[in-house]
Design a protein that fits this description.
heterodimer, A: MetI-like fold, 11 helices, B: alpha/beta, Rossmann fold, four-stranded antiparallel beta sheet, 10 strands, about 40% helix, about 25% strand, globular
């Protein structure tokens, strides 16, 4: 797929989600929490006004999907950005300063990556208690290594190039070289990783809400909807399928955006 | 003439392999001194030792580099950084990789002015335009907004020269600044360096393997082989009456465009073998 199409499709879908999340009360046809026990497990189109059907408590699936995007996007943006900042800082320090910085940070990364991430996140949330903050904290604590690993390698490579040496010969200090010379060259990779990480954060949030460790159950989440739908899959497939498809499309959009950005930002391809 | 840089008995090793053997040389104020030798002669190592940017694998075993009364090798890193760019500057070897690919020329050229000379953004920009003018870059306004990959090799080297002269340093070290350029551009760049050096009364330490280049711009030259100084003196003198057989062989190895029928004469094997014995003794 051409890179521009990837950026437009991926970015477009995410923009649509952002609009849904911000304007949920205006867009959603119904209250996502309002139960109507007379209208349970209505198929899509069976009852006027319920476009994607209702769940086992008679709540509107479409409205719940729209409201659930709030949690998903909050986690995606906040957790991925924080993980990115933490990982990039540590990666730059390890890659450019080297020595003890590198030894300590690299061993930390090795140790971190020996843990199964999903189990670790469930464990962390179990210890921290459920809720949005815990989910975000768990993702940051686990996924900073994704950034640190790549940024470290990239910074190490950039630091060996002659422009870094030329900057040293100009009398620039290590901090100035790190942030003025190296960071701009590492930034494209970081942006791509950030976009991919947002997709991962959406998945992790869905997993945690699937097992009931995310936000409280009165806030709609895609993972929570999938968990509910799982129990009535043979009576009402739509309760499971629509959040699953939305989740799938969201992660796909973040990945396509990341891939498109990578091709677009790669200086070698641009030249 | 007073000495600006005095290198005394400098010996450097990489692990146990000697890189520099007891090198002593003096560069006087305002002159252009060439370091000449083939690959591995230690000329770049001397340049990097003066700048304090030796790769970690190379260690200085003994000797001193006196600059303005202080031994550069004993200077703490912070004091060394104070000197770099302001008192001693570098014109790097490869213009293609020595500019940061992700930053605009203007930003890179004003770094030194803003960080070291503490100029305001507007002043630094004005000075950068002036510098680009001095190195004969047409349309400097445009060039400031460009990225390195949008400029030709010759233009990039001019930008690096402008950067080296930007803080008006006493000494400029040029590490084979024309090697990566083609011959016609080479000549212009050499003339430019020579002219700026005279205008600013800068002392120049010029690293090269090209005797033709030396003849064009250097007052004195030092011939190195295997990390050892073989011969030192005024350029015109040495080029006319080389004292050392190796210098003689190097001169003979230079292609002559006025005698194209002569085949190239490499430095004789026996001489190299003899030199190697002499050096390791």
């Amino acid at each position: 797929m051409p890179r521009d199409l990837r950026i437009w499709l991926g970015g477009g879908f995410i923009l649509l989600l952002i609009v849904c999340a911000l304007a949920a009360p205006l867009i959603a046809p119904a209250d996502p929490l309002e139960q109507d026990l007379m209208l349970t497990t209505m198929a899509p189109g069976q009852e006027p006004g319920y476009y994607l059907g209702t769940d086992s408590l008679g709540r509107d699936v479409l409205s719940r999907l729209i409201y659930a995007s709030r949690v998903a996007l909050t986690v995606a943006f906040v957790a991925a950005t924080l993980a990115c900042l933490l990982g990039t800082m540590l990666g730059l320090a390890a890659g450019y300063l080297g020595g003890w910085w590198d030894r300590v940070i690299s061993r930390l990364i090795d140790i971190w990556m020996a843990f199964p991430p999903v189990l670790l996140s469930i464990l962390l949330v179990a210890v921290l208690g459920s809720g949005l903050h815990s989910v975000i904290a768990a993702i940051v604590v686990i996924d900073w290594t994704r950034f640190a690993r790549v940024v470290r390698a990239e910074a190490q490579q950039q630091a060996r190039l002659e422009y870094a040496e030329a900057a040293t010969a100009l009398g620039m200090g290590r901090g100035a070289i790190l942030f003025r010379e190296i960071l701009p060259n590492v930034l494209p990779v970081v942006l791509v990783l950030l976009s991919l990480e947002m997709g991962i954060a959406v998945i992790v949030e869905a997993i945690l809400s699937f097992v009931g460790l995310s936000v409280s159950t009165d806030t709609p989440t895609w993972g929570g909807m999938i968990a509910e739908g799982r129990q009535i899959i043979y009576q009402a497939w739509w309760v499971l399928v629509f959040p699953l498809v939305t989740l799938f499309l969201t992660v796909l959009a973040f990945n396509q955006l990341g891939d498109g950005l990578r091709q677009w930002l790669d200086p070698m391809l641009k030249r | 003439m007073s000495p600006v840089i005095e290198i005394r008995n400098l010996t450097a090793v990489a692990h146990t392999i000697p890189i520099l053997r007891d090198v002593s040389l003096t560069v006087n104020a305002g002159e252009a001194m060439a370091l000449v030798g083939e690959s591995g002669a230690g000329k770049s190592t001397i340049a990097k030792a003066v700048l304090g940017i030796l790769p970690p694998a190379i260690r200085i075993a003994s000797g001193e580099i006196i600059f303005e009364g202080a031994d550069l090798l004993k200077l703490p890193p912070a004091a060394m950084r104070e000197l770099l760019g302001v008192r001693i500057a570098l014109i790097p070897q490869d213009p293609l990789t020595s500019l940061n690919p992700a930053r605009r020329i203007g930003d890179q050229l004003t770094d030194g002015l803003r960080l070291r000379a503490r100029m305001s953004r507007a002043d630094a920009r004005a000075k950068a335009l002036e510098l680009l003018n001095d190195v004969h870059i047409r349309d400097p306004e445009q060039v400031l907004r460009r990225y390195p990959h949008e400029l030709s090799g010759g233009m990039r080297q001019r930008v690096l020269i402008a950067q080296a002269f930007s803080l008006n340093p006493h000494v400029i070290i040029a590490d084979e600044p024309t090697t990566a350029l083609d011959v016609t551009v080479q000549k212009q760049v050499l003339r430019l360096i020579r002219q700026l050096q005279r205008d600013h009364k800068t002392t120049l330490l010029f690293v090269t393997h090209d005797l033709g280049v030396v003849a064009q711009i250097c007052d004195r030259l030092t011939v190195l082989y295997g990390g050892k100084v073989l011969e030192q003196g005024a350029t015109s003198e040495i080029l006319r009456h080389p004292q050392h057989r190796y210098t003689e062989a190097l001169l003979a190895a230079n292609p002559r465009y006025d005698q194209p029928e002569h085949s190239l004469r490499p430095v004789p094997e026996e001489l190299i073998a003899e030199l190697k014995r002499e050096i390791s003794a």
